[in-house]
Amino acid sequence: MELVRATEAAAIRATPFIGRGDKNAADGAAVDAMRAFLGTVNFDGLVVIGEGEKDAAPMLYNGEHVGNGRGPACDIAVDPIDGTSLTAAGRQDALSVIAASDRGSMFDPSAVFYMNKLVCGPEGEGVVDISRPIGDNIRALAKAKGKEIEAMRIAVLDRPRHAQLIEEIRAAGAGTRLLLDGDVAGGINAARYDSRIDMCVGIGGTPEGIITACAVKALGGVIQGVLSPKDDQERDKAIAAGHDLDRVLHAGDLVKGDNTYFVATGVTHGELVDGVQRNGHLIRTESIVLRSKSGTIRRVVGDHLVEKWL
C-alpha cells in the first residue's frame, strides 16, 4: 500500500497535463510526486531503472537510494508515466508504475536499451518460442488456448521497425492491437487471463521488459526477450559487458527470485485500469497490485479530496 500511494500521487499530479501536448511537464510533475512519496516508504530502495543517469535526471535517477532506509533492501524500477506521449495527447493506457524485488535481483539494462520481447499468458509455457516465426507462435498459442486463429489479438508497438512483423501477424490470420506507446500495459494485458489481448510482441525498451517481468511473475505468464542493440557501438558495448546477444532471456533472468511486486495506477483510462477521474470535491484513482510470492492480484480504488492535491 505504501507503493500504491506513490503511484497514485504521480498519476494525480499528472492529470492537469492530460491532453495539453506537453509530455515533459506531465512527466516532471509525476516524477516529483512519486519521489516525495517514495521517501516515506519503509525500505532501502535502490533505483535500478529510473529516469536516466544522475546528470540528466535529477529526480529518480539510476543508482539513487529512496525510502527511509529502515526496511528491506530492494531493487526498484520506476516509470512515473509509462506513456508520456499518450498523456500529452489525451490517449488511453498511460500508467504510473513501480516494480520492486530483492536487492541485486533485477537485470542491469544499461548496456542495451532495446529488447525483442514476447509476452503471453500461462498457456504459452513450453508452447511459444521467440526464436520461431511469429506465425508458428500464434498457431501454437491459439491451439493451447482453444481459440480460433482469427480470434487471436496480438499487441505490437506501432513503429516503422515492426512493419514486417505486423504483416506476418495478419498473414497468419490473427488481428493486431497497435500500441501508440506504453508496452508495459500491452505486455501485462497479454499475460492476464481476462484480457482481449493474447500476445504482445516486438522490440521495445529493455527497462520496460524488466518491469513487465515483475508483473508477469505474479500473473504466472510467459515473457521471453532477446537483447536488440540499435547499432554497432551498442553491440560492442553489450559484448564487452559479457552479454550473449543470442540468448533468450526469461522471467527469471530479468528478475531473479520469487519476491517481486508490481504496482500501477491509471493516469488515463485503459484496459488494465481506469484513469484518474475528478467528481466534484473528490479524485478517484484505480490501481493494480501484483505480488509474485502469493500470486495475488489486488485492485485498489481510492477517493482523494481535491483540496489536498490540485
What does this structure look like?
With 310 residues, this protein is α+β, with helices and mostly antiparallel strands. The chain is 30% helix and 28% strand. Strands 1, 2, 3, 4, 11, 12, 13 and 14 form an 8-stranded mixed β-sheet that branches. A 6-stranded mixed β-sheet has the order 7-6-8-5-9-10, with helices on both faces. A hairpin with a 2-residue loop joins strand 12 and strand 13. The model has no long low-confidence stretch (mean pLDDT 94).
CATH architecture descriptor text of the largest domain? 2-Layer Sandwich
Elements, N to C (H/E): HHEEEHEEHEHEHEHEHEHEEEE
> What structural category do the secondary elements indicate?
alpha+beta
Helix content: 25-40%
Rounded average pLDDT:
94
Please name the CATH topology of the largest domain: Fructose-1,6-Bisphosphatase, Chain A, domain 1
- C-alpha-based Rg, rounded: 19 Å
Number of domains: 2
Name the poorly predicted regions.
none
Reading off the top of the CATH hierarchy, the class of the largest domain is best stated as Alpha Beta
Shape: globular
Q: First CA to last CA: what distance?
A: 22 Å
Q: Name the CATH homologous superfamily of the largest domain.
A: Fructose-1,6-Bisphosphatase, subunit A, domain 1
Largest sheet: 8 strands, mixed
State which percent range the strand residues make up.
25-35%
For the secondary structure, the number of strands is 14
**Tally of helical runs:** 9
Binding site for Mn(2+) 1: 27, 51
Cofactor: Mn(2+)
Protein name: Fructose-1,6-bisphosphatase
Binding site for Mn(2+) 2: 79, 82, 208
